[in-house]
Design goal:
This protein is mainly beta. The strands form ten sheets. It has a five-stranded mixed beta sheet, with no helix packed on it. A hairpin with a 4-residue loop joins strand 21 and strand 22. The longest helix has 17 residues. It is globular, with a radius of gyration of 22 Å. The termini are close together. About 50% of the residues are buried.
């Protein structure tokens, strides 16, 4: 190994520590290097929050939280500031402006809140470094009192990327779905948006080559991409150049609105955690992007074990075509999680659920995308003293997690509780609340032992216009990827240079 190669290894390790997006290994390394790799906290994180609503009645709360991490340094800085927003045709123009940050976190372990009002609230672009970067989480929660898309609209602000899948979107007449594309960088991004319906790809030139200017955000109405409305579609967003954050704001004339986040990457086994016990309607939408079909076993992980829904034992997903099935009130009064497992040589899939609570004119809806396990640590911010429900599921072996309720935004003492989830079951609990809580707080879930655990948090608030059915939103709890694997440099390099 020559000196140039050693320099490349050092550069790769530094890049991994900064971005947290990849494990760094030397060219030609075998598995022994991976065993020697150490996990270090990321040194910088980026998050983007979409423009919250077009309603003049919208009230939006932003809550930022960074868990306390070991070896993450003693100082850091973070902030979320407005981006310039361009509104209709997908061309975008204008650069970001240096407005006052909506919120500026000060230290790990203490959540910070900000707020915005009305239809002109812009998308936000933010970054964190030093000890504020590992596990940095921002929750955007919007209350819309009336009109199309009313309800509690919740979304975790997300990191920029180049590829996203959104099963569960719609171009139906009763839906107004917008894909929000936000560019955090100093150069323009070029993005393609492709829809897939029940019969395959939906042809459209409008979704090709959408330009998102630096530090700006572009919402695109999905119904403008096709002449034939379809109830269930899968949306694929890819960046030809640059990178963006992407999320779908889905508004239904009857069922209210919420954010549809991207599904986890295509996988053979898919877990969708946290269907509320009083769900009156659950729709599963799945898509396989590969060349082969997918055959899936459909099961509900209930509080007592896995159950196969009568009449919905399996799902066949044709390659490149969106499959949807209405599961009705599949939970039967008990909270649960949907688990899709392959049968035979099944292709990887992406999936999401639309969950409805209430009946008739008194209904509210939310979305649950397929997600990653909580892993080493997962966090969700903006929990309230009342109204938060934590769902944990262990689709395989039993798993144990530690749940920590942080201090509040305005005061309170952290509290920790440990839960063991039996294999094949879902546990739905009211999470711990900080002692002397003032304001809102964050929940951090850490895997302690056993099999993989998946989780989500449901937040609900009373709705004066829909008696008995609270406005609600569900956020999944994937691993925050606050650490990254880097190789040790403890070898005798003089030997390698011979």
């Amino acid at each position: 190994m020559n000196r140039t190669t050693l320099s490349l290894i050092a550069a790769a390790a530094a890049l991994a520590a900064v971005t947290g997006f990849a494990a760094a290994t030397a060219p030609g390394d075998d598995g022994d290097s991976a065993k020697a790799a150490a996990r270090l906290p990321v040194e910088r994180s980026s998050l983007l929050c979409p423009a919250p609503s077009t309603s003049d009645l919208a009230e939006t709360a932003y809550t930022s939280y960074t868990p306390v991490s070991q070896e993450s340094g003693s100082s850091g800085k973070a902030g979320l500031s407005p981006a310039t927003r361009e509104l209709t045709d997908g061309t975008g123009s204008g650069k970001g402006k240096a407005d006052k940050p909506v919120l500026s976190p000060l230290k790990p372990g203490r959540p910070v809140a900000g707020e915005a009002s009305g239809a002109e609230s812009p998308a936000l672009v933010g970054s964190a470094d030093g000890n504020l970067a590992p596990g940095w989480t921002v929750q955007q929660t919007t209350e819309v009192a009336a009109g199309t898309g009313r309800g509690l609209l919740g979304v975790n602000c997300s990191a920029p990327d180049t590829d996203f899948w959104f099963p569960g979107a719609s171009t139906a007449k009763e839906r107004s779905d917008y894909i929000h594309l936000t560019n955090p960088d100093d150069s323009a991004a070029v993005v393609d948006v492709q829809l897939y319906g029940a019969k395959g790809a939906i042809k459209s030139d409008v979704g090709e080559g959408i330009q998102v200017q630096p530090h700006s955000s572009v919402p695109v109405l999905l119904s403008t991409l096709t002449d034939k409305p379809q109830t269930n579609v899968t949306l694929h967003v890819t960046a030809r150049s640059g990178r963006v954050a992407a999320a779908v704001l889905a508004a239904d004339d009857k069922l209210g609105g919420d954010w549809l986040p991207a599904s986890a990457d295509p996988a053979g086994t898919v877990v969708l955690p946290g269907i509320p016990k009083d769900a009156t309607s659950v729709r599963l939408v799945a898509f396989t992007p590969g060349d082969n079909d997918a055959d899936l076993k459909v099961q509900l992980a209930s509080p007592t074990g896995r159950i196969t829904p009568a009449g919905h034992e399996s799902l066949h997903v044709k390659s490149g075509m969106t499959a949807a099935v209405d599961l009705g009130d599949v939970t039967r009064g008990e909270a649960g999680s949907l688990v899709l497992t392959p049968t035979g040589d099944s292709a990887p899939v992406v999936a999401a659920l639309r969950v409805v609570r209430g009946k008739g004119d008194d209904q509210e809806s939310a979305f649950i995308p397929a997600t990653r396990p909580v892993g080493a640590r997962a966090t969700v911010a903006d929990n309230r003293a009342k109204g938060s429900t934590l769902s944990l599921t262990a689709p395989g072996a039993a798993g144990t997690v530690k749940v920590t309720a942080s201090a509040g935004t305005e005061g309170g003492t952290p509290v920790t509780k440990t839960y063991t989830v039996k294999g094949g079951t879902t546990m739905s609990v009211r999470p711990p609340v900080p002692a002397g809580l003032k304001g809102s707080y964050a929940l951090t879930v850490e895997q302690v032992s056993g099999g993989e655990v998946y989780g989500s948090r449901m937040l609900d608030v009373p709705d004066a216009d829909v008696p008995g059915v609270p406005m609600f939103t569900v956020q999944t709890l994937p691993d925050d990827r606050g650490t990254v694997s880097v190789p040790h440099a403890d070898q005798d390099l003089s030997v390698l240079q011979k």
